[in-house]
Amino acid sequence: MTVYENASTTTAAKPTSKGWVVAATVVGTTIEWYDFFIFGTASALVFSKLFFPSIDPVSGTLASFATFAVGLFARPLGGLVFGHFGDRIGRKSMLLLSLFLMGIPTVLIGLLPTYSQIGIWAAVLLVLLRICQGIAVGGEWGGAVLMAVEHADGNKRSLFGSLPQAGTPAGLILATLVFAHMSSFSESDFLAWGWRVPFLASIVLILLGSFVRSKVPESPVFLQAKNEGQTVAMPSAEVVSTHLRPLLLAVGAKLAEVTLFYLVTIFILQYSTVTLGLSRAEVLNSILIAATVGLFAIPIYGHFGDKIGARTIYGVGGILLALFAIPLFLMVNTKDPLLIRLGIVVSLGLIYPTMFGLQPALYSAQFPPGVRYSGMSLGVQIAAAIGGGLAPIIATTLLTTTGSTLAIGFYLGGLALVAAACAFSMKPSK
Q1: Handedness of CA 356, 250, 419, 77 (dihedral sign)
Q2: How far apart are CA 296 and CA 291, in angstroms?
Q3: Between the N and C ends of the chain, which has fewer C-beta atoms within 10 Å?
Q4: Are 272 and 283 in contact (CB under 8 A)?
Q5: Are 367 and 376 in contact (CB under 8 A)?
Q6: Model pTM?
Q7: How does pLDDT run across 163-181, given as a tens digit for each residue?
Q8: What is the end-to-end Cα distance of the chain in Å, rounded?
């Protein structure tokens, strides 16, 4: 038996420990993604008006999206730093640190003065706080999913790994509900103070998350790897020099899924409300329904990933997205609220989870325990920066250049085919 196999089949934690692990990863991930998503929603709805009001609407939208993208560009840095220490000193401590690094800047964003009060410094401070958010979420993901996968029994890694992924739609649901409620106020009240409430509410979630995560035991796989001397001095360098192929496959497989997510939650939200004239509440409710469907679909796909293989479900998901990419934007262009809702629910609620939910089990199988946190984090966060960070900007540029959203559909469909090819080229999760 190899060192990798030995560490991967370590005896799982006690049932009571597993309960805390599930609670900590799901609750903590929900909180961190709530913090991350409220910024994205605000960037689509209010930031261009409050922090970039002195430029024309299109440029203001691009500036707002660029500020949002900064958070995703910072995610590889978070994956690099947190991955290093997560592979060197443990997964648990990184979970607590990332929670505070995310939560405190989120609350401070809710207190920021706007452009009309302090001028350009408002945008500068917004960008700096967004960078902190990006570093935090870039570091948190690897620790959360590894705690779940590495505590799981060998035949339940896909299911356990999918549970912290369910925190993403849960955070999106929470963020969308809060913004949908605040959107019910008048436009003047929403711009004056309503948009701040979702950010300030994060203080309560930080306290809850820190309590739950403090109860989590360290990963048994990491403890065994450390005791047997499997850790390395520079995990990230080891990944690049020795595990470059799985790293590149992880990047390629992630690109389509993360691009889809931010096209729907950021670009389509802005395009539908500003360009097509749909109500803000209508589109937010569609995203809410899709996230609710995804919340249940993720663990269901995780269960079947243990039965038929995470790689198979992931690859099929990429093919389905390639087939649906252009129809999605055709449905959006009809301006029919029901067709737009159907497109959002199918893409974000049913297709997206086939890839996103299976990533922890599939990606963890590509790297040995001593560099697993670093390898997974770098692969996912590099793709998030390229795909997610640029998605709204590329989509806006394609729309402005071609005058049609079909180009965006081809762009998304091409990435989906790359994702399918990369997934089928990976080692199986079993």
Answers
A1: positive
A2: 9
A3: N
A4: yes
A5: yes
A6: 0.81
A7: 889 988 888 888 878 887 8
A8: 15
